[in-house]
Amino acid sequence: MPEFIPVLTEEEIHKKVKFLAHQISHDYNGRQLVLIGVLKGAFVFLADLARELTVPVEIDFIWASSYRTGDTSCGKITLSCEMNTDIRGKDVLLVEDILDTGKTIVNILPALERMGPASLKVCAFIDKKERREVECRTDYIGHSVASGFLVGFGLDYSGKYRNLPAIYDLKF
Ligand code: IMP
Ligand code: MG
Fold first, then answer.
1. Of 7, 48, 70, 79, which one has the fewest beta carbons inside 10 Å?
2. What span, in angstroms and rounded, lies between the C-alpha atoms of 130 and 108?
3. Ligand 1 near 104 CB (within 6 A)
4. Could you tell me the pLDDT band of residue 74, with boundaries at 50, 70 and 90?
5. Per-residue DSSP letters for 97-161?
6. Distance 32 CA to ligand 1 centre (A)
7. Ligand 1 pocket, residue 91 CB under 6 Å
């Protein structure tokens, strides 16, 4: 059984989500926003963030999967960016659970850019810097960590632990 080292409590997460939502609502004041969550991990963060925003939002999701087994990624990413929402001419915020190597975001952004949004920014709840391989834009970050493999609040290990309300560093 792995050890779960606490990283952020439910209360700390809530405070950070509120802080981000305040910043985003301020920056997009008077405008409308399309939130695009990256499945599966971002579904919890997006649901919390959306409910704290004071600007009107539309919500959609795209799929990204990085052929991960356990805690390692081979760097190949499959994307499915089919959405019902037409983002042409709209302000779009891409919502991710965690930035690790940066490859997922770097692959998604050009696909969304081709759909002609008025603006496109990135919001990730966790910025994990240790394994960053490609430079990618990060406009809003909830919390930065140096390293570790995190679970909870949408983050999984082999499909499990996404439903934990707090975030833990998994130690084997
Ligand atoms: P990147 O493409 O390497 O930046 O990885 C991003 C994706 O890998 C995230 O959306 C997560 O699904 C997954 N990931 C990276 N680090 C972790 C972690 O510490 N815990 C759980 N999932 C992670
Ligand atoms: Mg993810």
1. 70
2. 21
3. yes
4. low
5. EEESSSHHHHHHHHHHHTT--SEEEEEEEEEE-TT--S----SEEEEEESS--EEBTTB-BTTB-
6. 28
7. no
Identify whether 100 is a catalytic site residue: yes
What mean pLDDT do residues 92-97 have? 98
Report the amino acid identity of residue 145.
V
Query: Are residues 93 and 87 in contact, defined by beta-carbon separation less than 8 angstroms?
Result: no
Give the three-state DSSP class for 13.
helix
Across 119-141, b (16+ Cβ under 10 Å) vs e yields ebbbbbbbbbeeeeeeebebebe
Catalytic residue among 48, 100, 139, 169: 100
Which range marks the domain in which residue 105 is found? 3-171
Report yes or no: 129 and 102 within 8 Å, Cβ to Cβ: no
**pLDDT for res 79:** 83
- Asked if residue 73 has its Cβ within 6 Å of ligand 1, the reply is yes
- Please give the tally of structural domains in the chain: 1
Q: Which two tokens stand for residue 151?
A: 């679970």
Residue 18's domain is classified under what CATH number? Answer: 3.40.50.2020
- Ligand 2 centre from 23 Cα, in Å? 23
